[in-house]
Structure formats: structure tokens, C-alpha cells
Amino acid sequence: MDLSNKVVVTCAITGVLTDPGKFNVPVTPEEMAEATRQAFDQGATIVHAHFRSQQPGMGMWPTWDLKEVEDILTAIRQRVPKMIINMSTGVMGTNISGPQACLEKFKPDMAACNAGSLNYLKIRKDGQWAWPPILFDNPVEKVTQFTDTMTAYNIVPEFECFDTGIVRSVGMFKENGMFSGNPHLSFVMGVDSGMPARADLLPILKDELPENSHWQVIATGSGREKLWELHRATIDLGGNVRTGLEDTFYLPSGEKAESNGQLVEALVKIIREQGREPASPEEAREILEIKR
User: pLDDT-derived band of residue 58, with 50, 70 and 90 as boundaries?
Assistant: First the structure.
């Protein structure tokens, strides 16, 4: 099977804290299953899933409750059985019991593995912090706990990298034996205190990849036009791509997207304009070495 012209498309269907009262993000099991179906029908083969639940008086907040997560994953798997599930694992601090329990119980095809720490910052025009400065802490000990669990359950780690040094660290993880198989990295670009969403950085980042890596770009943040330019550059350089309402609310035209399916449709159109084709579920599994 010639896979050289294929691009794996991921859809991140909902954010960690995005307010469904203001934005059309899916949060219930039914909504997430339907969003996944729409994304799949337009050409996505991986769904990146955060889990949300109703908290009294607080709205739809992140959850690691096993019953609530099971309801979401069951709905997705029943609606779109061929979709590859990539589970989020991101948590602040050292207590990772929630995502660990979900990995062990549900054994997703893939799981995000944040590969390094970041001061998560945003500043307003008046110079004040948009929120109190946060340390998204991912020391090697924490990463090792995740990679050990993923290895035990044959889950492919997707190493999320917010800066160049984190990309280089994944190569060290490989040399240290922290995971097996070829690395799969995501360049997270557009977070204000991380790598900017600039296409001219891609050749540098690609040059720093560990040997035999698969890679994609997670394009977020401000500069709507730049995000879609970044996708084009990624495709040209042989990378995979991701979109979805976690990453952006806007189509290439600048119009607000009404659904995840619309964003995937726009991205697949760009893939074909660049002379490549979206990978099928079977092709994506072969490319990413998902052995299940």
C-alpha cells in the first residue's frame, strides 16, 4: 500500500473549558458522537476527545469519572466504529489518577502525552494577565508514568510539544527507552507563551524530529488566516493535520464554523488542493502503527 501521498486528519471536537452556551461545542455523549460522525464523514480518521460533565452551578467542566467517560466513548464507538480514538490526558499537578484510570479501563487507540512543561500565559492589551499565570507541569517523572501505562496497554502516545526544546526531548525519551515504536509528535503552535503559529518555523521543527517520526501541527490562537496557511505548509512538508472546535472557531473564509464537520471539510479541501489525499481509517492505522 503506497501511503506516501496520504494525510492523516484529526478532529479535536471540543475544548477543555469552552463554554457550550457561547460556542457550538459538543459536550454530552450524544453530541460528541454526532460531532465525531460528522467529522468522519468529511474525512477525519482520528477524534481527539476531552471529557466533560455537568457540574452543579458551574457548567460543563472536565471529568475523569469512569461512568461519564464510558458513556461518551461508548456513544462514539457505536456511532463511528472505524474512528480512531485519541484520548486527552492533560492535567495540572502530580495527581494523574483520573487519566491513568481511563487509560487502563478504556484502552484508547492513542492518547495525548504532554511532553514538557510550559508557563501557560496570556496578557491583555492593558498589560494585565488574562488569567493568573499557570504552570502546565509535565516533568519527566509524570511523562514516564503515562508512557509506562500506554506501553502496557498498547496505546500509541501522541507527544504534544509546545516548544522546540520539547520536540528535542522526545528524542531523548526514545533513547532512554521510555516508549517503543516510531515517535508521533504534535507541534502545538499558537499558544501565546509557546511556539507562534508561523509556517516558517516548520522546517526547523521538522529538522529536530527524532528519526522515523510522524508529526502533525495543532494550530490554535489568534490570526485566523495564519492557521490555515500553517495547515497548507504542514501538508507540503509531509505532515499530518488537525482541526476542530477545540482549535479554532473560524473557516478559511473568516466565517464562524457551525460544526466540526465544516472545519474538517475545509481542511480536506486544502489537502486535495495541495495534491494529496486524506488517509482512510485503515491507512491511518498503518501509518501510525496502531496495532489493534
Answer: very low
Angle, alpha carbons 164-112-162 (nearest 5°): 20
Instruction: Report yes or no on 87 lying in a domain.
Output: yes
Q: How far apart are the first and last CA of the chain?
A: 18
In a domain, 117, yes or no: yes
pLDDT of residue 19 exceeding 90, the answer is: no
What Cα–Cα distance (Å) separates residue 285 from each residue in 10, 158, 189, 282, 292?
12, 14, 25, 5, 9
Chain-centre distance for alpha carbon 278: 17
- Tell me if residue 45 falls in helix, strand or coil: coil
Residue 262 counted as domain residue: yes
**Domain contains 1:** no
Residues 6 or more apart whose CB falls under 8 angstroms from that of 140 comprise: 173
Grid cell in block for residue 54: 455537568
Instruction: Supply the CATH number for residue 199's domain.
Output: 3.20.20.70
- Total domains present in the chain: 1
